[in-house]
Structures are given as structure tokens and as C-alpha cells.
């Protein structure tokens, strides 16, 4: 009998359906009955969980009972700064010694202000970065470390930068390194990746201890990178801890032939932290180490904290405050961090995807893995979470899939500023400048009339010279990066540091 | 017999092929033999011509025997201005009285400088235009007319702006009108479309006559507009002249309800031209009218010249210098312009597409149409052509399909500056600032290290106020557009104009 092709397909489908039913029966027969419901339940739970994440992408914009433009207009003539309370008696709680229990929801105002302070330190690593691929200094900081906070209006925070950090990677990682098109450049292999800063005397009195801050710059690590993550974990430490190999490569790579990474970012930062800790310990001061970063920088912050926990005396508390950071390591990595007392506060935005990476499906909530394959290569988040919601702010466009906007650090800082608790609406007294959100993305509602991605140089840095020609001005000599970092410290900074030491 | 489906298709193809051969035979039999070769030749010629245009899109970059970066570096310390010769004895030739015969190839240096002067007047209409869709003044000029040339460093040319022009369109034209997102705006219907300026006494002496300039702003008219062009010609004048209905709509639309177009652009410009001509005629001066524009602005310039030719006395010569302008009207339009003595110099870049629009196929070279349908709706270019080639400049990226770059007015001005003749390489003494080319496109070779699209405001015009908040500053009151244009003239301008009149 000749069969039409559609009949063949139909028959094949019937065969298949039959096979599936039989296969299911066989499966049922083979597996001991007691185990099925638990596994099935966990599997369904995990997959539902993953799907649920996907469905969270379209929050409803909040209903606006206020006339937003005039409400916003009023804010423009009020200062953005809040009073700076003396938190010296409570600093250990704010620094996370009790894992921020009972002060996250509702969010304690003192903690809110500190989170924003550290977030702004991280934002500085973006704002001062030279992205200009025609600049011979592409990938460096546009200012030397003594100018950085002045240039970015962050001197108000009362910290001084003591060290710039540079990183490279032996592994070819897509789109993380900013590179100049120019042949003769300050560095072909390294990027400015962050800095170490320390609180001055006044701020030290206010916050109750000498605070050593490390801020790590992120890159918006591309999805193709995350796709490549699964199973690419490298061991760290002496136990079974493993971490994602790309993050570890950036943190630890060095090469004698380079100018800025004869030592790795890890070597640079640990040398500076131990030097500063010893300095202030000898003076009998209380000390804290606070490590912060956004996105990839949040991952580097965690690696840094892990290493610092081994190197720094036990009485020096170490905290990580990360923003939109991805998962970094396996469950042993997490356990070791906890055992060593590293406290981690992960600030995440519900609609952002990066903090769900790597391990969108295979993560700590995918419990069935415990039984199937062990947890050696399941990525796990660590610490406490402060979860923000784009939909909570009347200033933000909620809908759509604005991934750069949801992930932007300025969006995070805006949402922290407006966060009271998971149950209450956006804080009406929030004072932080709303316009900052649109610096590098398009998140603000149109009524506010703030252009998108407005953070830009006039004429991309070109200036008209005396002959009427548009030229790129030479960089101020003291802003040219130097691999011999100490040689760059001008007299004022030396004096400033002496003050820090002698006070 | 059962047939496989592929066999059926094969058979169908054979049937079709057979039919086509027969159809061709029938065609051959029906048409009188004498006519075939001519028609066929013309058809083939026209289509080859069109195809040839397509193939011109990929010029080979010139071989570079010079070390471009150091060659360019040297230029940066030389002035961009050339000496300004006294052209008062030759101005009529330079203004085109002999259709620029014998001075285009090779290009006379005096004419080159004049073309660039008028090009810069046109460029001003882009450089000063407010494109910010969050500005309540979107679509206006950012400066009042007395500041315009100072702000754009064009005062060196020795002209003063006497009138701003505004246009609207009753026809819905895609993407030509820049509109504010803001509810309360200076105008919902109109855009600043150009200006009238007049030479001051010093320049008048140098160029031998009082020169009235009209500069028309273009928009990069989108392809969907051109697609719609064919057969949409409206009559103009009293004979059979017809012009593209979109251009004519912008030039002639008015509406009593609007603030800036109670009179049309045509009414505004003609009132100003006739007023100025009368003024200087009464003083016994020699006068010229020079109308310039880029892209759509070049089309408006031609419409303006057509109208002015009827209104202005015969002894006042009228010239159009257009850059990358599309075709505007039919052959009668062209003939009338020629009969009235309007001289047109069309500057075109070989790789640009806009000057081939509308009528990429059906144009003046499509001769077969004469016989088939008459020339009533065939678009025709007018005047003389100065043809530039992107491939001639060692500074420009040649390859690819960089349509915005090929069409950019700054690319045109750069190529005019470097043009000696169609046979010789780029002029090595060309002094115009090369960096200007990349203002709003990406045309310069990477070795020059000029960022693409660099013409931008710092932070898109936001400034940090006293409270540390980023806000859009209020526009300087005397730069706010006014529909009662004369009310805006400050005292200095009044005095300046009086000087012009009394000198």
C-alpha cells in the first residue's frame, strides 16, 4: 500500500506516543517508588522557580497618584545630601556582624546611607574610566588617584584613595578588556580595575573605625560569557572550593612582560590591604575592610574577600557589599566564606538578570542535583540579599526588557535610596538626584525630560585649538597612568597620608 | 501514471520556457522593425546607467604614499583660513553668469573658497539646530539670529543674519519634522528651516556686490519618502512646470492656527529678499542673490530660486549652490529656470545616493520615455555639476556603504576643499580642518584618531546646579524663538543694520 507522506508522519507520531508511554512505565518500574515523589517534586520546584524568574520581567508600573513632573521639579531645589549621623556605636551591625538581620526589611536608614556610599565608590570606577578607543590611555582611569574623588564630587565621603589596581586575563574572555586602537598605548594587556581607599580621621570618628575600602569595576559581562560558564570552575584555596574560571583569571593573571600586571590584581590588592591593616593595627585603631563592586566587580569583590579572610587578623571584620553580582563559586566556596566570618550583602534588582548568572537553572535551589551529581559544580550565592524592584519607583519605566537599564548601577543606587521595606512604596523623602539614573541608560519616565545616556564629554573630548582645529588635548601629565604607582604621589598626598598616619 | 512532485515542477518549467520563447517571437512580430533598435538601445543604456550607479558604491581607497598621521599632525599647527582675495572684478563669473564654464575642472581657487563659504552657511543650519526631543524648543535654532555666526565661528565670513525662516507641511511626510515630546512647546507644527543673511560693507567690497544669501536646512529625507515620489508632482508657476509635491508642501504650507507659519516659508523668504533688494537698489548698489542648501535644503533652494526669479528685477543675478540635492521637478521646470537666467551649481559626491533621487531609473537620461509617455513626470536635474569622489581623499574611509557619511555636508566640504580637478589627486595644501568631517558620521580613517559623531554637548546639555542636581538649564531668554521675529532684535543689531543701510 502506498502511503501519503502526511499519513506516514501521523503514524510515526502514534508510534512515538506509544513509545513514550511505555518508556514512562519502564521508568516507573525501574526506580524505587519511595524516591520518585521527592525527586519529581524538587525537579518541578526548580524548573518552576526558573520559569518564575523569567515571568518576573514585566512589572506593572506603579499607579501614580502624584503629579510627577511638579513633584520632581520641587526636589531640584533641595540638597541631595542627607545629614551624616554618628554611627560609631552601631557600626558593627551596619557592617553586617549579625548578617544584617532585622535591619534589611525594613531597611535601617543608617545602613541605607552606607550602602549608597559604597555604591558610589563603585560607580566612580565607571565614571572615571577612559572608554575612548582612540585614546592612547583607553582602559585607564582618566584622573590620578589623588584627584579621583574631587573630580567625581565624592570627597564629601571622607576617604582617600591609596592605590589603583590593574588586571589582565590569561583566558580569552569576550568583551571584558577595553583596548585602544592606537599602536603606542599605555598598556596593551591591562585595564584599570579598581582602587583601595581609606577613611580619613573625621569619617573614621563618625563611622567608629578606620575603614579600608576596595572598589572593583565591573564590565557588563556578556551573555556569551555566561553561556560558557557551566562546569568551568577552577579550584581555589586548600579545600574543595571552586570558582568560575573567568573571574579567577582576571583576579589572578599576571605576566612579567606587561607593564601593569607584573603582579596580579590579587597581589596588588592584598599587598595594599595588609600594609594598611598593619599600619592602623600598630596605632591601636579599630579597622574594617569593606569590599564592593558591581556586576563582574561584585564577583571580584568576593574572591578578594575570600583571600583577605585568610590574610587579615580575625579581629578585622571583612564585608562585601555587591550590586548585581553574578554567582561566583560552589557550595564549598560559600561555606568557607561563612566559616571565616566574611559577611556578604548582595543588593539585587528583581528584573536584572546578571545576579541569576551563572546557573539560571542549575543553582542552589536546584536541589535534585544533590542526589544526582553532588554540588561540586553547582553555583551558589552567598550571604544576605537586599532585593529591589524596578516597579517600586514612580520615576522608572517599568515594562519591557531593558536589560542595560535594569542592570545599571545607578538604577540600583536609586532603588536603594527609595527603599523602605518590601511592603511599602518608594520613599517620598528620597534625596538622591534622580537624573543620575539615566547617565548611561534609558530608565527614567519621559515626563522627567532627562535625556537617556547623558553622561558624555563635550565633543567627545575634542577641543578647538588656537588655529581653529579640533584636536584631542594631551592628557594632564599627572593623570598619565604609571606602573610605578608610588612615584606619582604628589606632595599634598604625601602630607595627607602623613596626617592619616600621625593622627 | 503517477508523477513525483519534482517531475511535475520540471514539466511546468518546460511549459513556461516554451511560452516565453513564443511570447518573444510574437513581440518581435508586432512592433515595427525600424523602432526596435533605438528603443532597445535606449532602454539598455538607461538600465545600464542605473546599474552602473549601483556599482560605483565601492571605490578603492587611494594608495597612500605619505605617512598620514604625521602629515596630519603637522597641519594641526597651521591656520584653517586661507587669504581672502579681492574677487570684486570677477564676481559675476564666480557667481555663475557663464554657467561656471572653464572654472569647474580644474576648479578655480576663488570659486572653491566661495563654494565652501556657502556650504558653511548651510552647515550652520545643522550645527545650531535643537534636536533634543526633551527640549521645549526642539526644532528651533539654539541661538537668536544675532548670535548665530559668532557661536559657530562664522563671523569671519562677513555676513549678518537678517531673518530666520520657519516651515511646516500640510502633507504627512515621514521623518522630516523634529518634534518635542514635551506638551508645552514653542511650536508643535513648525521647524526652523533656514535664514536670510546679507554681506557687510567689508565683504561687499571684497566680493564686488551686496550679496543676499538664503541658507536652507535639509533633513536626510528617508528612502521611504523617495519611494513615494514617482508621479507625485504638483504644478508650479503658470506653464507646465511640475515639482515634487513634498518639497513644494514644505516650501508653501501655512496655517492661521500655528505660531510660526501663519505665513509660509515661501512668503517669509520672498518678503525678506524683496525688502533687501529694494533697500540696496535704492542705494544704487550692485546686488546678487545666492541660495544654498544641502539635501532637502537643496531642493528648497531651487524652489526659492524659481520664485525669486519672477519677483526680483532682471539685473539681480540669482544663483543656487546646492550640496547633495535631489532632483526637484520636470523638464519644463528646468527649462523655465534656465530661461529666467537662474544659475545652478550642484555639488554632488559620486558615492552619495540622494542626488540620484527621485528618479534613480526614470530620469533625464531615460530617453525612451520621450516617446512612450512624454516628459511631464520625469524628474530632471538642472544646472552645472561639480562631481566629487570620496576615493580622492586620503583622509576618508572609501569602501562600504556608508550612506550617512557619503551624504554628510561636512564630507562634501572636505572634498571641495581638496578638489583640484577630476584628473589630479587631493590638494595637498587643503587647509580646512579634517576633523570636522566626523562631526556627525564615521568617515575618517582610524589612523587620525578622530572619534566618530563627536559633535555633542557635554552631558547632553545637563548641568549640575547648586544643590548637586543635574538639570537642564533654562534657555537664555534672548535665544527663545519668537514668532514676532522683529521684536527680538536687540539694540546692537539695530545699530548694525543701520550701519549696513547707511554705509
From TrEMBL, chains A, B:
Record field: transmembrane: none
Fungal lipase-type domain ranges (all copies): 213-360
Compartments, as annotated in UniProt: Plastid, Chloroplast
Protein keywords: Chloroplast, Hydrolase, Lipid degradation, Lipid metabolism, Plastid, Transit peptide
Domain of life, per lineage: Eukaryota
PANTHER family the UniProt entry points to: OS12G0614500 PROTEIN (PTHR31403:SF11), PHOSPHOLIPASE A1-IBETA2, CHLOROPLASTIC (PTHR31403)
Family: Belongs to the AB hydrolase superfamily. Lipase family.
Protein name (record): Fungal lipase-type domain-containing protein
Species lineage: Eukaryota, Viridiplantae, Streptophyta, Embryophyta, Tracheophyta
Amino acid at each position: 500500500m502506498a502511503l501519503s507522506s502526511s499519513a506516514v508522519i501521523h503514524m510515526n507520531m502514534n508510534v512515538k506516543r506509544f513509545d513514550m508511554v511505555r518508556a514512562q512505565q519502564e521508568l516507573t518500574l525501574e526506580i524505587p517508588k519511595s524516591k520518585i515523589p521527592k525527586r519529581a517534586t524538587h525537579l518541578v520546584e526548580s524548573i518552576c522557580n526558573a520559569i518564575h524568574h523569567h515571568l518576573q520581567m514585566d512589572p506593572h508600573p506603579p499607579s501614580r497618584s502624584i503629579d510627577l513632573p511638579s513633584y520632581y521639579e520641587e526636589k531640584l531645589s533641595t540638597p541631595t545630601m542627607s545629614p551624616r549621623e554618628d554611627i560609631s556605636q552601631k557600626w558593627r551591625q551596619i557592617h553586617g556582624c549579625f548578617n544584617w538581620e532585622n535591619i534589611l526589611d525594613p531597611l535601617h536608614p543608617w545602613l541605607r546611607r552606607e550602602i549608597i556610599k559604597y555604591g558610589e565608590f563603585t560607580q566612580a570606577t565607571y565614571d572615571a574610566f577612559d572608554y575612548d578607543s582612540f585614546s592612547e590611555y583607553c582602559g585607564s582611569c582618566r584622573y590620578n588617584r589623588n584627584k579621583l574623588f574631587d573630580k567625581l564630587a565624592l570627597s564629601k565621603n571622607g576617604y582617600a584613595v591609596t592605590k589603583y589596581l590593574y588586571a589582565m586575563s590569561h583566558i580569552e574572555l569576550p568583551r571584558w578588556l577595553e583596548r585602544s586602537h592606537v599602536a603606542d598605548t599605555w598598556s596593551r594587556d591591562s585595564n584599570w580595575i579598581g582602587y583601595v581607599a581609606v577613611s580619613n580621621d573625621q569619617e573614621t570618628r563618625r563611622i567608629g573605625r578606620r575603614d579600608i575600602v576596595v572598589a572593583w569595576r565591573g564590565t557588563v559581562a556578556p551573555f556569551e560569557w555566561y553561556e560558557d560558564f557551566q562546569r568551568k570552575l577552577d579550584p581555589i584555596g586548600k579545600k574543595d572550593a571552586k570558582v568560575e574560571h573567568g573571574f579567577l583569571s582576571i583576579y589572578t593573571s599576571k605576566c612579567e612582560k606587561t607593564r601593569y600586571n607584573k603582579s596580579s590584581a590579587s597581589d596588588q590588592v592584598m599587598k595594599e590591604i595588609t600594609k594598611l591593616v598593619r599600619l592602623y593595627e600598630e596605632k591601636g585603631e579599630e579597622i574594617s575592610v569593606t569590599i564592593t563592586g558591581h556586576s563582574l566587580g561584585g564577583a571580584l569583590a568576593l574572591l578578594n574577600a575570600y583571600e583577605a579572610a585568610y590574610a587579615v587578623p580575625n579581629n578585622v571584620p571583612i564585608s562585601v557589599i555587591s550590586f548585581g553580582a553574578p554567582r561566583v563559586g560552589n557550595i564549598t566556596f560559600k561555606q568557607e566564606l561563612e566559616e571565616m566570618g566574611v559577611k556578604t550583602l548582595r543588593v539585587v534588582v528583581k528584573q536584572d538578570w546578571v545576579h541569576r548568572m551563572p546557573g539560571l537553572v542549575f543553582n542552589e535551589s536546584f536541589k535534585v542535583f544533590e542526589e544526582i551529581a553532588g554540588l561540586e559544580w553547582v553555583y551558589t550565592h552567598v550571604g544576605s540579599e537586599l532585593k529591589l524592584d524596578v516597579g517600586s519607583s514612580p520615576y522608572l519605566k517599568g515594562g519591557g526588557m531593558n536589560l542595560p537599564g535594569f542592570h545599571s548601577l545607578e538604577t540600583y543606587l536609586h532603588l536603594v535610596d527609595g527603599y523602605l521595606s518590601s511592603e511599602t512604596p518608594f520613599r517620598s523623602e528620597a534625596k538622591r538626584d534622580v537624573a543620575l539614573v539615566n547617565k548611561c541608560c534609558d530608565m527614567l519616565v519621559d515626563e522627567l525630560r532627562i535625556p537617556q545616556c547623558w553622561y558624555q564629554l563635550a565633543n567627545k573630548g575634542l577641543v578647538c585649538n588656537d588655529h581653529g582645529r579640533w584636536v584631542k588635548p594631551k592628557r594632564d601629565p599627572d593623570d598619565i597612568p604609571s606602573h610605578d604607582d608610588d612615584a606619582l604621589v604628589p606632595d599634598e598626598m604625601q602630607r595627607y597620608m602623613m596626617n592619616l598616619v600621625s593622627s
